[in-house]
Design goal:
The chain is mainly alpha-helical. 82% of the residues lie in helices and 0% in strands. It is built from 4 helices and no strands.
Length: 140
C-alpha cells in the first residue's frame, strides 16, 4: 500500500498526534519528516515500534485518507454555508430595495399632493442646515 507522501506531509502536523496515540514510545524527533523523505519516517517508526512496514504504511495511509476526507467535508460545509448566506443577503437586499422604492413613492406622492408644504419644508431644512454649518465654521 503506497503512501501519498505529499498529502502526508501537508497534514503531518495534525496527524502526528494520532501517530503518538497509537505508538506512545515515539518522540517528536522520531516523527520528523526530514527533507520530505517519508520512507525514512516509516523506517524510524518501524524500528522504534517493532511494527511491520506494511502495518505502518497502512496506518499512515488511513490517517491521510481520513484527514483528506475531513478537509473535503469542511470545505463542503463552508460552501453550503456561503451559499445559504448569499441567498439570505440577496433576499434581504431585495426586501430593502422594495421598502426604499415604496418610501420613495410615498414621498413623491406627498410632494405631488402638497407642493407648497414640500417646498417650505425643504427651504426650512436648508436654512437649518446652513445655520449649523455656519456656526460650526465660526467656532473654529
Amino acid at each position: 500500500m503506497a503512501i501519498n507522501a505529499q498529502e502526508l506531509q501537508g497534514q503531518w502536523n495534525q496527524l502526528r498526534g494520532r501517530v503518538k496515540e497509537k505508538w506512545g514510545q515515539l518522540t517528536d524527533d522520531d516523527l520528523q519528516i526530514q527533507g520530505g523523505n517519508v520512507d525514512q519516517l516509516v523506517g524510524r517508526i518501524q524500528q522504534k515500534t517493532g511494527e511491520g512496514r506494511e502495518a505502518v504504511e497502512k496506518f499512515l495511509t488511513e490517517l491521510t485518507a481520513r484527514g483528506s476526507s475531513a478537509v473535503a467535508q469542511a470545505a463542503e460545509s463552508i460552501g453550503q454555508y456561503t451559499h445559504q448566506a448569499s441567498d439570505r443577503l440577496r433576499e434581504h437586499y431585495s426586501q430593502l430595495a422594495d421598502q426604499a422604492r415604496d418610501r420613495y413613492d410615498v414621498a413623491q406622492d406627498m410632494v405631488r399632493h402638497n407642493p407648497t408644504q414640500s417646498v417650505a419644508a425643504a427651504f426650512g431644512i436648508g436654512v437649518v442646515a446652513g445655520l449649523i454649518v455656519g456656526l460650526a465654521l465660526r467656532s473654529r
